[in-house]
Each structure stands twice: as C-alpha cells, then as structure tokens.
Amino acid sequence: MNGSLKLGQVFGIPIRLHWSFSLLLIYMAYAGRNYGYSINGILWLLGFILTIFLCVILHELGHAIAAKYFGIETQSIDILPIGGVASLKTAPKKPIEEFSIALAGPLMNGLIALCIFPFLLWLIPNGLRYFDSINPYRDNFLLLIFATNILLAVSNLIPAFPMDGSRVLRAILSMKMSRYFATGIVFFLSACFSLFLILWGMNIIQVPGLNTNPILILIGGFFLMSARKEFQHVQVIHRIGASTIDEVMDKDFLLLKKEDRLLDASKALVSNTAKDYLVVDENNDPVGMLAREDILQKVTSSPQQTIGEIMENRFHKLRPIEKVNEIYFLMAHNHLRTLPVFNDTTLVGMLYFDDLRKFVEAKKKGK
Ligand SMILES: [Zn+2]
C-alpha cells in the first residue's frame, strides 16, 4: 500500500502502518482537548488507541497464522485508521480453509480478552465499578481494552462483507452449495445490513437505546461497496469457469509443411508473429510442432534442412470445449506456450498462453 510505514516483520510478514493513521491520532488528541481533557487524559486516550491497534495487528496475525497452517503465505499486514488488512498471497481453496482463516481473527480478540480477564479480577476487586466512563484513564484502562476486544470479536462476526463473519458464513454455505451461490446469499445479507445502517444514519429507523449518527450513512456505503466488490470478484471466477478455450484461441493461423525447407519457411514467417507453428504432412495431417526461434536460429546454418527434421514430434491436443481456468493452470504449470485445438480430427485453432493470460487478466478487471 502506498504511503505506508513499515513497523517491522513478524513470521516474515511485513507489518505496515498507513500514514492516515497519524490523522486519527491528531483528530483524537484534538477531540480530547475540545472535551476539556487534561494533557494526562489525552495521553491515556492516545495510549488506548495505540493499544487497540496492537490488538488489531494481533487479530490480523491470527488470520495469517491460520493461513500458514494451510500453506497460504501472507503478503503483508496493513493497518489503516478503519482497521487492519492481512493480504494473502493465494485465496483459500476449500471451505474449511476459508472458515478457519476467517474465524482465527475474532478468536484472537477473544483470546486477548481471556488473557486480560484474570488481571481484571485482580485489579478490580469491586467488580465493574470502574466501568463508569468510556474515557480511558488509569483505573479503567484494562477494562476498556477488555471490552473493546469483546466488541471487536463480536462486530467482526457480523455476516456482511468485508467482515470476517461474511467469510465464515460463506464457507459454511459453500459446504452445501456452489461458492458463487453462497457469495450471492451473503451479498444479499450485506446489502440488507448496509441499508439498515444508512436508514439508521438518516434517522428513518431508530434503534432503541442507541443514538443515530450521520457517519452511519458513510459506513453503510462502505459496506455496500465492499459487498459489491466481493461479489464481482467471485463473479469473474465464475465467468472464467464458464468460458471455453474457443473464445480465446486464434482461428487465423499459419501451418508449416513437413517437407518444406527452412529457407522457404522462414520467408513465410516475415508476415506472421506467432511463436509456435503446427506442422502437417502431405495429407494435411498434423505431425508436429515447431518454434519460430528454432527456424530462425537454424535457417542461417542449414537453410536446406526440412521442417520435419527439426520439429517436435509430440504435442498435446486440446478440444475447443475445454475450460479456460483448467487449461490456464495446465499450461502455466507445464510451461506450455502454444497448443493446437482440434474438433475431432479437424484443426480449428491455436491457443497461445499469452492470449490466455490476457483473457484471464481482463476478466479479473471486469472487462
Ligand atoms: Zn479479520
């Protein structure tokens, strides 16, 4: 993320603080002063915010540790004024993985609260008598940290994107239905939740015992945007999943003849930029593949050699109905650059990995 300060590295994961976090501290100090806090009171308030953000880092580390258990690396942990983000290098594959990784964050806040609890009993013999103010000071500091961690655990379990609860619910639903459909259901719940926040913020609906605040409209909008983004992302994977390679393959391709000499073949390459060619025999039956660079390399030393002498005899055949996502991984994994596509025995196209990669990238961008 741009404009971030690297705080350090935990388990090899860089932890970065966004510059806008300093604005939050300045704003809180300013608000504290306006409320008539003493310097001491402002310092307690800032110390409280920093401690909560330490808890947020631990929450994100919870996700990262669970991800590592399933062999998924975490790129970075970014801390913003609105919370933290652990960016995983690859998405969890199975519902149980998504379930565990999502749940690990709120569980970490639960664990922090559990660790604080004995100290609370020790520090506050008279029970919750210091829970008289939401302004942190020496006597209620630990109690407020405890309460905030409970609040973080519970609020993160709300089943609306981008909260962890949305992923927990999606993972549970995905065990019974497709991930696409499960995301659709959670998207609907997220939209309802956003609408509720917006209407509450506009004071159209009231929540007993709680005041309204115009900032709820912004938060509702943020939730709606996050939900839309998540749904679109899953939609792209779904769309790629439905795409077949006949949408991507090149139908206008050059064939080389087995008996042609390299000198003649190289002339035909001038007006063509493909990296690999299919070679056919005198009956137009495919017999091999040859790379452009092999022809250009050998044409100067042995121009009279034939294509058939230097071609690769073995090649993998595709069918036009094969799925884009499967072939993408097949080609990437085996470093295959070009594959011919056959409809039964008729050659119908050539599939280039470069085109396939561009197709997948474009779908990711929603084109
Ligand atoms: Zn989380």
Biggest sheet, spatial arrangement of strands: 1-2-3-4
- What is the string of SSEs from the N terminus onward? EEHHEEHHHHHEHEEHHHEEH
Radius of gyration: 30 Å
**Biggest beta sheet attributes:** 4 strands, mixed
Helicity level: 40-55%
* Secondary-structure content class: alpha/beta
Mean pLDDT: 87
Ligands, deduplicated? zinc ion
Number of domains: 3
- End-to-end Cα distance, whole Å, is 24 Å
Beta strand count = 9
Shape from CA axes?
A: elongated
How much β-strand is present in the residues? 5-15%
Catalogue the unreliable spans. Answer: none
Count the helices. How many? 12
Structure description:
The chain is an alpha/beta fold. The chain folds into three domains: about 1-155, no CATH class; about 170-240; about 245-365, CBS-domain, CATH 3.10.580.10. It is built from twelve helices and nine strands. A four-stranded mixed sheet has the order 1-2-3-4. Strand 3 (about 75-80) and strand 4 form a beta hairpin. Helix 3 (about 95-125) packs antiparallel against helix 4 (about 140-155), helix 5 (about 165-175) runs antiparallel to helix 6 (about 180-200) and helix 8 (about 260-270) crosses helix 9 (about 290-300). It is elongated and about 95 Å long. It starts with a strand and ends with a helix. The model has no long low-confidence stretch (mean pLDDT about 85). The structure holds zinc ion.
